[in-house]
Design brief:
15 helices, alpha+beta, Porin, Ubiquitin-like (UB roll), 16-stranded antiparallel beta barrel, single chain, 8-stranded mixed beta sheet, disordered N terminus, Cytosolic phospholipase A2 catalytic domain, 746 residues, 32 strands, 3 domains
Length: 746
């Protein structure tokens, strides 16, 4: 499925990779050029193409034009060119643009969902249950891919930050410089010039690369990247009154034959050919006095955001290479200073807090608007800034079932009104997540599971969900849970749960040698009463009734033992990790207590179990890691606890260290040495672990000298299916083992 998503992104990104665009002057725009009576001069239009990370070269172009004192009267852009050009036309300085590029987490901008620590707890819990990132829409008519490979929240936050205060909702034709953003109507294929559209929306629509970012609806038209229909709109620039055009093309050149080795590269080349033909037709419209800049961006791809410094330098170099022609357009120093002051001196709207007198959430599909209103955190009567209102709207993305959230802020004599307009992600109402988990020490300790999780959300006005998880492989299990909040937006909930499973467990002696294998199956019904603790935690009480049957398969004993019991359980969870694959910040903590109050079928006392697990992640430069500790105790005949296996005393046979009490501690560190392609995963790390732990009993008190010491070395890869480890481990005075491990490590 990662291949399909990569193919989809490649099919649609061709238009984001190239193109140069031109601008059109609206009739009522006012140029900030010096008075024509002082020195009549031609009207200059700056046309900035799309190109993803290659578009950072536009900032270098602006820097060099500023140094040469070349005035710009009109700005037009598409995709990244629209972002840079729109911000510049609104009054942002080159320095501000440079700082924004350096501070922005561009990987988050093109990620398929908001940062994990911004998700609601219910969505974070899904990552622990199934760490795969392969998600589909599942409906009666089949399964479907999400409409875009990247999410919207980080992108729209970055667009907001690039604009000067007060410019977000300003019409594009009322900026300091006449500006035009170019988009395409996805239904009709027509070119759409966004002249009276709010600047933020105009830039966002121009960035809506099909398959990468979701389309944007503007005036009832579904809009996507303008490069689809006009990559270099020289004709539009002429209509705006441009006498001379400075066109900046940062498009990706056609690939060489030796690079066309996959379906993805061939599909991308096909679209690039069509795009290039469009560009060539527009280039013929350039006149002898126009200037074409094509920065040397070889080796920089549309997702190479980390190479922004080089892209900006190449933009500067391209201007300097044409300085012989450009200097004819230069202004005297004093005259240019006057021009620059007028361009950047837009009235700044100070974002003062204003009392919220009206709050409205527009209806969106199955989601109850009142639920979104509560989850936004906004309340009538409180003092809020425009930034706080927009942030409140954006945090709704953490639900996982919204495609877009628009927040409109208006002030009048009564106070501030906020309108939140969410767009439900139709595919996310019924989501299917597919994953794999496997482990092997390349001997006879191998496990494999295919896991599928299906979630139906917004089943009623209170936001109920039905979550079903199935596993097949070494273990078989099916769990379904109906999660029902106790009111609209309530943090309290009940969750009736049914579960069936079948598995086996090995029993070892004190030397770690396998003595028997117990096969068992179980059925359980539980009622959970819980409370979510904001987005970061959960506290729950469970009443469980379960039936278990087991027999020894090694040595084979056909007679089965049957056991039924009623269990009370309390669980407290904290999860603020930034990622499941290899966290660099945050905490994961679980405190679990269980006690059986009724038990039949065997004569052992009613058991009690306690377990505490804690993980604290950290990072320093390219290094990241975590400290982990675990303690568990079983009493009254409960199943013994166990250790052993990768990162749980590496080198020791999995689950071979058994006892009524166990303790484990480890420190893990790894250095980033590369990254997977964005469509396939994330970081690749080289690391090691130091571990200590053991099992003991009340008759055998814990002593430091009795703990086993272990270590491992590994390569960790963040894949779409979850974290993948290749490693080797050894336990002091014991065994060594190689490992292949896909799945969570706690």
């Amino acid at each position: 499925m990662a291949y399909l998503r990569s193919l989809a992104a490649a099919l649609c990104c061709g238009f984001f990779l190239s193109g140069a665009l031109a601008a059109q002057q609206p009739p009522n725009a006012t140029s900030v050029a010096p008075d024509a009576a002082i020195k009549p001069r031609p009207k200059v239009a700056l046309v900035l193409s799309g190109g993803g990370a290659r578009g950072f070269a536009h900032i270098g172009v602006l820097r060099a034009l500023q140094e040469l004192r070349i005035p710009v009267d009109i700005v037009v852009g598409t995709s990244m060119g629209s972002v840079v050009g729109g911000a510049y036309a609104a009054g942002s300085s080159v320095e501000q643009l440079e700082q924004l590029v350096r501070r922005t987490d561009w990987n988050a901008v093109v990620a398929d969902r908001p940062p994990r620590d911004e998700l609601v707890y219910r969505r974070r819990e899904e990552d622990l249950l199934l760490p795969s990132r392969i998600e589909l829409g599942a409906h009666l008519d089949g399964v479907s891919l999400p409409p875009a490979a990247a999410g919207n929240e980080a992108l729209e936050l970055a667009l907001s930050r690039v604009l000067p205060p007060g410019a977000r909702d300003k019409p594009a034709n009322l900026l300091q410089l006449p500006f035009r953003s170019v988009a395409s109507d996805l239904v009709t294929g027509e070119l759409v010039e966004l002249n009276d559209t709010p600047l933020f929306l105009a830039m966002r629509a121009s960035l809506a690369v099909p398959g990468v970012f979701a389309p944007v609806r503007v005036n009832q038209r579904l809009l996507v990247d303008g490069g689809l229909v006009r990559n270099l709109p020289v004709d539009v620039a002429r209509e705006m009154g441009a006498d001379i055009i400075i066109a900046v093309n940062v498009g990706t050149p056609l690939a060489q034959e030796k690079e066309l080795v996959s379906a993805v590269s061939v599909a991308q080349q096909m679209l690039q050919i069509l795009t290039e033909q469009n560009v060539q037709r527009s280039l013929k419209e350039l006149r002898p006095d126009d200037i074409l800049l094509q920065p040397d961006l070889g080796g920089i791809g549309f997702l190479d955001f980390a190479r922004h410094e080089r892209a900006m330098k190449e933009g500067e170099a391209a201007v300097r290479a044409m300085s012989g022609r450009l200097v004819a357009l230069a202004l005297p120093e004093a005259q240019y200073a006057s021009y620059e002051l007028a361009r950047s001196s837009a009235p700044v709207a100070i974002d003062q807090p204003v009392r919220l007198t009206k709050l409205e959430v527009a209806p969106s599909g199955r989601i109850n608007p009142k639920e979104l209103e509560i989850q936004s955190g906004l309340k009538l009567g409180q003092l809020v800034t425009s930034e706080q209102a927009n942030k409140a709207g954006n945090q709704l993305f953490g639900r996982g079932d919204l495609a877009r959230v628009e927040t409109e802020v208006r002030d009048d004599e009564n106070g501030r009104s906020v309108l939140i307009k969410p767009t439900e992600a139709e595919w996310a109402h019924s989501r299917l997540r597919v994953g794999l988990e496997l482990s092997s020490d390349f001997t006879d300790n191998n496990a494999f599971e295919l896991k599928v999780m299906h979630v139906l959300s917004s089943l009623n006005d209170w936001g109920a969900e039905l979550r079903t998880i199935g596993r097949v492989g070494t273990e078989r299990a099916l769990t379904t849970q109906f999660w029902q909040p106790l009111g609209v937006g309530s943090q309290w909930y009940v969750a009736p749960t049914l579960e069936y499973g079948a598995s086996s467990t090995d029993l070892f002696d004190s030397r770690g040698l396998r003595q028997a294998r117990l096969a068992y199956d179980y059925q359980a019904a539980s009622l959970v009463l819980g409370r979510q603790l904001g987005r970061w935690g959960d506290l729950r009480y469970s009443l469980v009734r379960q039936l278990a049957r087991g027999h020894y398969s090694i040595p084979e004993v056909l007679e089965k033992q049957r056991e039924t019991q009623t269990v009370h359980a309390l669980t407290f969870n904290i999860d603020s990790l930034d990622t499941i694959a290899f966290p660099t910040r945050g905490t994961l903590f679980t405190l679990d207590w269980q006690r059986a109050v009724q038990k039949s079928g065997i004569t052992s006392p009613a058991p009690t179990q306690q377990r505490v697990q804690g993980l604290e992640a950290f990072h320093a430069g390219r290094w990241a890691g975590h400290v982990y500790a675990e303690w568990a105790r079983s009493q009254g005949g409960a199943s013994e606890n166990n250790l052993g296996g990768f990162l749980r005393l590496s080198g020791t046979t999995p689950d071979s260290v058994q006892g009524s009490r166990t303790i484990l501690g480890r420190i893990v560190m790894a250095r980033s040495i590369g990254a997977m392609p964005a469509a396939l995963g994330g970081d690749v790390r080289l690391g090691f672990s130091l571990e200590a732990g053991g099992a003991y009993s009340p008759q055998d008190p814990l002593r430091w000298g009795s703990l086993k010491q272990a270590a491992s070395a590994f390569v960790a890869v963040d894949t779409r299916f979850g974290p993948l480890y290749f490693g080797t481990g050894t336990t002091k005075g014991g065994n060594s083992s190689a490992y292949l491990f896909l799945g969570p490590i706690w």
